[in-house]
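Please fill in the sequence for the structure shown.

STRUCTURE ENCODING:
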């Protein structure tokens, strides 16, 4: 069943009923002036004059500082004036009202006042989306009055909100875990790619170095296979040149002698020595 959950759900503030006021009048700590101020404050509260109601309840507390009824109604008037103020901000009426309700929830002798204080604290926590504290306050109210249907209804709503929040938190945690896993995987992939690039670069360097070594070896082998040229000194070179010149001169002389013989023969002259 869906219902609109407006500010201060299910009658956030309840005025003390006349029956409770009557019972308070019989207590030893109650005074006539206190009761009159409470009645005046209740009238002003119902008329919507919350600031004047606060003043009246404050006067009742001056008459009887331990009056749980006056304290509860005083806090109720403060809440009506605070509107949507954040109770966590200590400079607004909501924070003061919350403090009063907390004291009554923990130590009120009147079980009905304690019940309503717990119920209103549950509503405050609910409006601040503090689901677990709201659940606990509603449970406190129901322990004091199991017939509080409004507390039971609000408890169910708070539990549903708590389940939704838990599911959202779980989904968010899973998303964060998945993102972390993805980031780690991306980093691993980057490292792997980087390692592969480094390996490829190293392989290329090794191949180039091997090729250079092979080229150098081949060049050295060619040089080893070529005949070694002997270096000739200048003196040896001169001797060789002189020997060649002498050979050439002898050859020319021989050629000239043969030529002369041929010419002499052709002229009918003896070519030998004369005896």
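FILLED IN BY: designer on duty
SEQUENCE:
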């Amino acid at each position: 069943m869906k219902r609109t959950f407006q500010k201060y759900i299910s009658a956030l503030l309840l005025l003390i009923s006349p029956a409770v006021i009557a019972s308070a009048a019989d207590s030893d700590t109650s005074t006539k002036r206190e009761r009159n101020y409470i009645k005046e404050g209740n009238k002003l509260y119902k008329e919507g004059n919350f600031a004047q109601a606060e003043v009246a309840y404050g006067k009742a507390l001056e008459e009887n500082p331990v009056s749980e009824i006056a304290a509860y109604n005083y806090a109720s008037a403060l809440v009506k004036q605070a509107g949507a103020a954040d109770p966590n901000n200590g400079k607004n009426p909501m924070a003061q009202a919350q403090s009063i309700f907390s004291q009554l929830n923990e130590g009120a002798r009147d079980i009905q006042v304690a019940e309503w204080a717990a119920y209103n604290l549950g509503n405050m926590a609910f409006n601040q989306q503090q689901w677990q504290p709201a659940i606990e306050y509603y449970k406190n109210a129901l322990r004091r009055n199991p017939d509080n249907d409004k507390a039971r209804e609000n408890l169910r709503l708070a539990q549903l909100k708590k389940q939704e929040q838990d599911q959202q938190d779980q989904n968010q945690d899973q998303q964060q875990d998945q993102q972390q896993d993805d980031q780690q995987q991306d980093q691993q992939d980057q490292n792997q790619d980087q390692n592969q690039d480094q390996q490829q670069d190293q392989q290329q360097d090794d191949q180039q170095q091997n090729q250079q070594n092979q080229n150098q070896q081949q060049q050295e082998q060619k040089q080893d296979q070529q005949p070694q040229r002997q270096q000739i000194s200048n003196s040896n070179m001169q001797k060789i040149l002189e020997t060649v010149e002498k050979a050439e001169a002898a050859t020319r002389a021989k050629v000239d002698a043969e030529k002369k013989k041929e010419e002499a023969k052709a002229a009918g002259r003896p070519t030998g020595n004369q005896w």
